[in-house]
Amino acid sequence: MSGSSAGALPPGRPSRQAFIHQESLSLDSSCFSSPPVTFLQELPSYRSIARKRTTILSRDKQSGTLLKPTDSYSSQLEGEITENLDNQSIRKYALNISEKRRLRDIQETQMKYLSEWDQWKRCSSKSWERFVEKAREMTAHLELWRKDIRSIEGKFGTGIQSYFSFLRFLVLLNLVIFLIIFMLVLLPVLLTRYKITNSSFVLIPSKGADIQCTVYPISSSGLIYFYSYIIDLLSGTGFLEDTCLFYGHYTIDGVKFQNFIYDLPLAYVLSTVAYLALSLLWIVKRSVEGFKSNLIRSEEHFQSYCNKIFAGWDFCITSRSVADLKHSSLRYELRADLEEERIRQKIAERTSEETIRIYSLRLFLNCIVLAVLAACFYAIYRATIFSQEHMKKEIDKMVFGENLLILYLPSIVITLANFITPIIFAKIIHYEDYSPGFEIRLTILRCVFMRLATICVLVFTLDSKITSCDNYPCELCGYNQKLYPCWETQVGQEMYKLMIFDLIIILAVTLFVDFPRKILVTYCSSWKLFQCWGQQEFAIPDNVLGIVYGQTICWIGAFFSPLLPAVATLKFIIIFYVKEISLLYTCKPSPRQFRASNSNFFFLLVLLIGLCLAIIPLTISIARIPSSKACGPFTNFNTTWEVVPKMVSTFPSSLQSLVHGITSEAFAVPFFMILCLVMFYFIALAGAHKRVVVQLREQLSLESRDKRYLIQKLTEAQRDMRNRLD
């Protein structure tokens, strides 16, 4: 192989072609120059190489990359390393200590013959690598909840540890989102309000809007009953409504500093685009590794059995009880694989009449699932309508419980739907005659759709109420100003209530269900009822769906309530400690455990679905629904998005033409075609990588057959030798 091609190889991974050449040529030199050995020529690997040798040699003669018979892998690797000493570290190569020391001596010898500039570059590169490595070690010690997550990993394995790592990721994500919104929106307002800088507010100029559209009767902050503060804190009304927590507080056009005017409406829109784009890129970046491992995972069932038996143990486990649980989990997985094999054979032996019957039953059951979803969505729609129509009553006309029930009615209905539908789906799936693995995936998919779609139904219901006026003319303001004078703030209040109510439910279930259940199961174990009830299981999919549900609420509500990411950060921190205590003292791990690689990819996939569903109602609210004329920074715009064309109109004419060209159909169609070509290229590349993995597995299989063949021949030779001696 030429030096240029060898230099392009990654460290520690010689090309597969070089392996094949080396094996074939070593066979040429060893088998044909020496006396023939019959049983070696009967090896499965030898026969496979002999079949491929002719085509490989002819191809290499044409490409000019044929190795000489005297070449060896060590000399090839040494040449490769010595040519790449400038760019690669010896530590990255899969070599033993003696070989690494020899290569280090070669490196030091080569340094003497380099110019001073090259020596300085090499020394600076090494210093930078050491600095980066030390910085990574330091940041690893500063990692949030590092000790707690390591302890959970040691006691319960990597599956449950991946859930808490995912929860830590959401805490960091929401913290970064809050910092983006704080820097772009809240910080200029606070600097001006508290006279920290020499700046002033630029008020929104009046553009002849009707006086009825600018009326915004904020609820009185005076306390009538002692529980008013509690209601305001739980619902975002009263004293919280006109704070920086909600959209209506930012009714200014900008902030005037000494040398420039800060455009607050533009910053508000850009902060929304920024946190959505950051979330998308961060999720995709973290999911790449899991996607790669899932892409090349083998579908061969025999290998699945071998992986579970020989490589399925989690060596992070240190507790005896968790080790017993891991044993039961492996037994469950093997039973599930055997059940899938049985169902696969049953499908193969199924007659046409049975096939028609099972597909008809599945169609009927899926109709029931759709009917359940439709009923839940309609219940959420009616609850939202009822709550919005009655929430404007005076507080003194209601008792405390009635007021909270009206305010939290949509949240209560959504929580009940999220609790009941998984039970119904779990019962229905048993009659659909799927394999155990597919049953779990389909049930989780239905629950994901149910949990995330309920939020979208709530937002779309609010949007429909905002844009419909019944007996009141909407042409004046463009929306139902009588019921929603500042509709963005009221949507933010609904998202705030969902966030708070979800936290209350998690705390209530842990305190008033899990802890009493643990006490009863532990101290009343002689009662058969409590034995059947058993201890609460820490189900990873259900807990993940819960926090993804909360994160989707945060993504939708951050536009209408800029401080909602800070609330979500505090909420997830509380959930982390509550779930940790619950796992350690009240729950037991589920026997259906997840491997860490599968879990991480599954978590991020569900989170990506939640992000996509959150973008849809946000886009409609920003681009289609008229902005409020009584509050917010967009009172002089028909829609929120109009601030972007206004900014583009201030650009130079050449830059305007460029922006209009990029956003036109003439650019979008070729760009879409190029994206499709790039996608097809990566799909083909993935297929090629998968074929390489299959070939490498074939080589491993041939090696195992060689070992069995050699052991068989050795056993026969020993038997013949004993017979001769006897």
From TrEMBL:
One of its GO terms (molecular function) is ion channel inhibitor activity. It is found in: Membrane. Keywords: Membrane, Transmembrane, Transmembrane helix. The chain crosses the membrane at residues 166-191, 266-284, 363-384, 405-431, 495-513, 555-578, 599-620, 667-688. One of its GO terms (cellular component) is plasma membrane. It is a multi-pass membrane protein. This is Transmembrane channel-like protein. It comes from Phocoena sinus (Vaquita). The lineage of its organism: Eukaryota, Metazoa, Chordata, Craniata, Vertebrata.
